[in-house]
Fold this sequence. Notes:
This protein is an alpha+beta fold.
Amino acid sequence: MKKLKKATLPGAWIVNPKDKGRRKIKKGNVYLKNGDYFEIELYNPLKKSILADIRLNGESISEGGLVLIPGERNYLDCFIDDKKKFKFETYKVDDSGETKEAISDNGLLEVFFYKEDVIQFDNWRNYFRQSVIKEYYPIYIERQPYWWYDPYKPTIWYGTDINTDFTNGTITTTNVSYNTNSLNVSNLNQIETGRVERGEESKQQFNKVDINFEQNYIHSVIYKILPESKRPKELEKKKVSNETDLLYKLSELKDAGILTEKEFTEKKKEILSRI
Length: 275
């Protein structure tokens, strides 16, 4: 596999839907507020088309992927199949090992880039063989219908747990009841987590294309979207420091007569609102 230079790698960023400004990334993490909408900026610097397989919360957002032609920059604001906008929503859970495992994919954004598979003299035979197999020997996985059951497995009804005992070839079951008061849920600490959910309807339109892509991805981008409450304190301090510097510069512009008192007041109010 030919190794691509960093400057020629496809890219993906989380951006603000209003001004397309890229969200700051700290050690692979991006911090959003509850209810924030966002878009995914995608860029293809290569001379061939690429396919972007985008996954949120550990699952692909479409049965296919988004194709970017050479030099194209695109801003995706929704799940491709149902065209619902990306919306970050937070909630609280108990701080236990089991729960942390359950929420491990929350807010995870993964983008895998695949390069267009162009037919060349040294690979056309293999390409033709793959095409024939795909056309005449389709591979599929048949899902089990909802009424399917295993006659050798005892039925478990909702609301009860069953202890199964195989003795002398027979099956005996004993219902087990739980005392929820013994779980001490109130004693567990609460932590905030967030997932990318489906928001309002998007107006983006998509066209289907018939292009073949290589089986192995050439590059991947992975971010973790976290609630604002998880933002490291040093980032907050740096933000306040930057805004303070802007206020000093703004004051200097007013003293120099470049800004009027009204302009100074409006800009000052705008900067303070960011802190």
